[in-house]
Amino acid sequence: MSVSPSEGTTRSTNPDDGRVVDASEIGKFDLTMNLSHLLRRAHFQAEAIFDEHLRQFNTTPRQKALLIVSFQNPGATINDLSDGIALDRNSTKEMLNRLVERGLLLKQHSKTDRRAWEVDITDAGIDLLCRILPGDQDVERTILGRLPEEHHLIFRKCLRILGGAE
Question: Residue 146: helix, strand or coil by DSSP?
Fold first, then answer.
């Protein structure tokens, strides 16, 4: 049901669970207190800081993560890499293909399962990581620098819990 702000008291039912929402509450909704909105904003800020510090490497944070997981798991499958970077298989595959085109990763058919691909990092990929990681430490310091130092560890722990890494 569509409701205009002037109608205020019209009610709408969530078809999924039957809960009723009073449309007058929408005007009171504070996005700056909404967790999903705040996480998205923080994510965009972190990406902007990464770009500011590491733009010269023409690499995104997700590409950096894929290179790291590929280094740490030689011969991993696309599914393994997707799990390792917490990204869906199709997005991982597209990103993988871009990194293969750049000569940073090598993709070849598995020796045991011709339907699967094995992925390895190239020397160029390792070299890129060796140049990115010092700047990545600066990115983390900049992001955490917005918080009081006593919150750094708890912030990281909360993110690990929310992200399923812990």
Answer: coil
Topology of the domain comprising 34-162: Arc Repressor Mutant, subunit A (1.10.10)
Backbone angles phi, psi at 108, to 5 degrees: -145, 155
Which two three-digit tokens encode residue 154? 């708890």
Pair of tokens at residue 139? 């990115």
Domain boundary assignment for the chain: 1-33, 34-162
CB count within 10 Å of CB 41 equals 13
d(CA 10, CA 2): 9
DSSP 2: -
From first CA to last CA, the distance across the chain in angstroms is 41
Concatenating the DSSP letter of every residue in 70-130 gives HHHSTTB-HHHHHHHHT--HHHHHHHHHHHHHTTSEEEEE-SS-TTSEEEEE-HHHHHHHH
Q: Residue 65: which of 38, 99, 109, 40 has the closest Cα?
A: 99
Structure tokens of 122?
A: 């190239």
pTM for this predicted structure: 0.82
pLDDT in tens, 90-108: 999 999 999 999 999 999 9
